[in-house]
Amino acid sequence: MFSRISQVARHLSRPAPNYLHNSAASGLSATTSRAMAAERSKRTINTAACLIIGDEVLGGKTVDTNSAWFAKYCFSMGINLKRVEVIADDESEIIEAAKRMSSTYDFVVTSGGIGPTHDDITYQSIAKAYDLPLVLHDAAYERMKRLSKPHPSQKDFSYDVDSPARRAKLRMIELPYDKNLADEDQVIFAADDLWVPINVVNGNIHILPGIPRLFEKMLTGLKPRILPRLTDPEGKGVYRVLFSTPLAESEVAGYLTELSSKVEGKGVKVGSYPRWGKSRNTVTLVGRDQEFMDSLIPEVEQGVKGRRIQTEGEDDDAGSDKDT
């Protein structure tokens, strides 16, 4: 019986077929869709989501570090990262996840699937999601020719001669593009020495490569465009206070429950993190009201029989495992 119920639940939780997505989109006029995308590209950013795309991540060949870096990026600016997903290089999955995230969160970043090979299908999938053509972007092409050097194995490569290698390279700058929207809202060059653009679709989906050094550099370059759209335009981010405690989680749980209830109304979250194999565990306060949080430090130090620290592990010493 349980098995049959589980099968039904899985069936009901599956993404809607593409034709249902398309029919929903077709209910809006092209003019309305463009207006919504334009508005979405300017709205205040409170929430974010990260979509990691790649069979190599799911297969264990590559370790995803981009989502962790993006989490720190969001935290530093006070953006509430609400969701991280890892999906396959599968058109239907990319379409479903991109549309769902775009409609739910203010700032969406995708990572991966924009290379020159057959399995790099992020651009074509997101173009299909929003019924957009793939357009060879002239400025990106000029930058590619100027900044991208052929691989040593491609001694005879030329941008002026059609070849399989040239066609493969051009796939990386054939972008989902709406000719009715401003170019600067769809294609962003985050650094002078990079030809890879940040392609923005539906106003808030930012398509980035999966290579960590490029992912990080491009988002860093995007930051000046993000800051004015934050609740706090100075981008001071969220304030975090760390405490080191010699107590086991089970020992400090009662106090932390009381503390959490006390500070919830001030927008402060209390966290507890066991550190397996270490003599001390970590307690955190996270919020925006720095003055209020600082006023709690003596109380929390007493409650957890520990002290405030700047970096986790800075006061480690020899000791046995603590329970979790």
Automatic annotation (TrEMBL):
Q: Fetch the InterPro entries from UniProt.
A: MoaB/Mog-like_dom_sf, MoaB/Mog_dom
* Segments forming domain MoaB/Mog: 49-229
GO BP annotations listed: flavin-containing compound metabolic process
Q: Which domain of life is it from?
A: Eukaryota
Q: List, alphabetically, the SMART domains matched.
A: MoCF_biosynth (SM00852)
Which GO MF terms are attached to this record? FAD diphosphatase activity
Write down the Pfam families for this protein, in alphabetical order.
Answer: MoCF_biosynth
The segment annotated Disordered runs over 303-324
Q: This protein is called what?
A: MoaB/Mog domain-containing protein
